[in-house]
Hints:
By secondary structure, the chain is of the alpha+beta class.
Amino acid sequence: MTGDGATDVHVCQTKGCGKEAKMRCPQCIKLDIQDGTQWFCDQTCFKKYWPEHKVVHMMKECSISPPDVYPNYKYTGTLRKYPISPFRKVPQSIPRPDYVHHPQGVSLGERDAKHENNIKVLTEDELDSMRVVCKLARQVMDTAAQAVEPGITTDELDKIVHETAVELECYPSPLGYRLFPKSVCTSVNEVICHGIPDLRPLENGDICNIDVTVYHRGFHGDLNETYLVGDKVDDESIRLIEGTHKCIMAGIDTVRPGVKYREIGNAIEKQAKKDNLSVVRTYCGHGIHRLFHTAPNVPHYAKSRATGVMTKNHCFTIEPMINLGDWRDTHWPDDWTAVTTDGKRSAQFEQTMVVTDDGVDVLTKRPTENGRPWFIDQLIAHNYAQAKKYTENAQ
């Protein structure tokens, strides 16, 4: 640590300290980091905060010299893998899902349920718990949505999701699930799903999907949305996002008692074809409640072999992944990040819902703006030409 003779008053960056800081991190000085993150009151606080503080150095180093994490990997598009920050911690007071305690992050509950392959009919008490956790998941999502802008890293979005979830006494469900290293999935541009938050700053013109799941008092709530980054997103990407949202709405419109689960995919692919878009087949929606992923499987493409008929109090997600180009996917060497094989962009929306007496109740629906997705707010805020039809519809 290095002292500094400046007269400006600085506050120690270690969480919960708040003391006046007169010492600067020597690596911050070397990297010419000028913001307040470099200040600490003493060596003890500096060492305590080091696991989080070193991310500042990594971010600066990435901006100076873009990393080459997979130098021998042939990427399908323009996006590149950046370094990731350390595993974030959750207070021990917050209950964890079973997979957190497994050395490989495997849910034994999910494994047992898979052998039975039964679609659970939730009790009214279980439904009440699902409504609570889905409301909390939406709060986390809406907090993250407001932070999406050029320059922010997906790692910073992960931090926002993580800290908001913890404040709401939730465990971020992705963290540790089959050893996933982060608290949220962030899928940028050609990434279809399961993108790992890293230190790459979002660029003006990117699109970014944020997939939030939280666990609260024994239940999971799951949703995602795709966002515009800045005011330079091209028309094709906006067409993709709009088309993807129409696809999930077409799927939701099929939900009611007595309908076969395969009809969801039929409706989604029919809508996608109208907009000259393709439907990813590798991943599907899923049952959700006490288990993160369980029966039913909900494919998003037509003529699937999905089994099961919708029954009142079935709870599941619909989450179509829609591509501008070919529907096929491949993976980065991290074995998580799924990307389009042709490098063209992909978008996704997801909601958790329950079958009612005569239809569906979307539990993760946005409670404001009549439930509309955030990308419409962004179109309007950034004065995109496509915003006109939405403002006219609101009048």
